[in-house]
Amino acid sequence: NFMLTQPHSVSESPGKTVTISCTRSSGSIASNYVQWYQQRPGSSPTTVIYEDNQRPSGVPDRFSGSIDSSSNSASLTISGLKTEDEADYYCQSYDSSNQVFGGGTKLTVL
Amino acid sequence: QLQLQESGPGLVKPSETLSLTCTVSGGSISSSSYYWGWIRQPPGKGLEWIGSIYYSGSTYYNPSLKSRVTISVDTSKNQFSLKLSSVTAADTAVYYCGLGHLGAFDIWGQGTMVTVSS
Questions:
Q1: Which of B18, B44, B36 lies closest to A42 in space, CA to CA?
Q2: What pLDDT score was predicted for residue B102?
Q3: Which of A46, A97, A104 sits opposite B60 (nearest CB)?
Q4: Is the pLDDT of residue B32 over 90?
Q5: Is the pLDDT reported for residue B30 higher than 90?
Q6: What's the CA gap between B4 and B23, in Å, rounded?
Q7: Residue A66: helix, strand or coil by DSSP?
Q8: Are B95 and B6 in contact, with CB atoms under 8 Å apart?
């Protein structure tokens, strides 16, 4: 089984750009799609990125995803930060029989 | 618009079995396009995948929980269920059901809090 490691927290100012990383411990990050979920306090998670870099309808194009095989990691980038982006963000991927979530990153927009 | 709703006891005694049901509305649970899963979140902690069941009936469970978990589908009621046996306080969490597609959980229920306590 593999793990996905995220920074515990990140913070940035409104209008700036922030990137959250998600590193896969074993197996290639490119071998299975990576998803990113946003979770606001008291709410269920919602998808902001699926299949590495695809945005569901309704998610602003300020959200983008990418993968980097050299570091075996995925990244979520949020540009033009707004206070409403303050939330927990989780990456998620899978292999042939398991689904795995990262530990989550708390984004503070201050 | 497909929606999911969890239901079940909010309090379970230690060593007993936690049983939850997820009711699917706005679509058929028999669709071969999707799979159905359970995810939990202990208070103040992150998300943990519990397991998933596919259209074929195949089930996959988190290795750390596999010995205690059973997920099943009742197509007649458009529901799927979770049973977690021999619970302890460590199983206290918000339990979510989810619809999966191509490796992602596209739709989540609102979650239900389950506390393990005597």
A1: B44
A2: 82
A3: A97
A4: no
A5: no
A6: 6
A7: strand
A8: yes
